[in-house]
Structure formats: structure tokens, C-alpha cells
Amino acid sequence: MVVKKLISVVLDDTEYEIACTMNYLKYLEEQIKRLKNIEHLITKMNSAKKNKKILIFIRIIFLVSLRIMNLLIILIKFFKSIMMLILLKKKAVDDLFSEIKKIKKLKV
């Protein structure tokens, strides 16, 4: 009886960890979309030939992110870090699902 309860607790904890990781992955993917949008606007701004258009793009970018100056400096590094983190988190979720399968196979 105690072992079954312990297995139940471990399964619940593992499922909770999976849910937290999945929520975090969703958040990171939203951040990637936002950063890609900023990157696209920066590309358009750089290809603009008139100063007026460049100023318009700068204002749009500023509205998208109030911390634009910092984002312009770390955009590429941040994007690569997020992509690596997503891969690691997805592997962690797969490992946790594997752990659940192993635990469920235990005969008690």
C-alpha cells in the first residue's frame, strides 16, 4: 500500500514537472515569435532608403519592445540560447514520459 502511494506521488510529481516544462516551452516559443518580429522590422528598417521610413520603423520597433536597445545588442545570442533551451527541455519532457512508462511497468 505504501509503495503504491509512493509510486502515485512520483507519477504526480513527474506529471507536474512535465506540465511546468510545457508551459515554459510555450512561453519561450512566444518570445521567439516576438523576437523574430523585431528582427523582421529591423531588416525592413535597414533596407529603408528614406529617413522618414527609418524613423517610422524605429517607432514601431520601440512600441513592440520598450527594451529595444538591449534587444538590438543581444537578439542573436538570445535567439540561439532559446533554441538550445527548447531542445533541452523537449528532451527532458521525453525523458520524463519515459520515466512514467517505467514506473507504470513496475509490479507492486
Question: How would you characterize the overall build of this protein?
Answer:
It is a single chain. With 108 residues, the chain is mainly alpha-helical. Helices cover 91% and strands 0% of the residues. The protein has helices at 2-47, 51-64, 68-105. Helix 1 packs antiparallel against helix 2 (51-64). The mean pLDDT is 77.
What topology does this entry show?
Layout: H1 2-47, H2 51-64, H3 68-105
Helix pairs in contact: 1-2, 1-3
> How many β-strand stretches?
0
Low-confidence stretches: none
Rounded Rg: 22 Å
Overall pLDDT score: 77
Structural class: mainly alpha
Order of helices and strands: HHH
How far is it from the N-terminal to the C-terminal residue, by CA?
Answer: 9 Å
Largest sheet: none
Based on Cα principal axes, name the global outline: rod-shaped
Give the proportion of residues in helices: over 70%
Q: Count the helices. How many?
A: 3
Share of β-strand residues: under 5%
Comma- or semicolon-separated keywords:
108 residues, 3 helices, mainly alpha, rod-shaped
Summarize the structure.
The chain is mainly α.
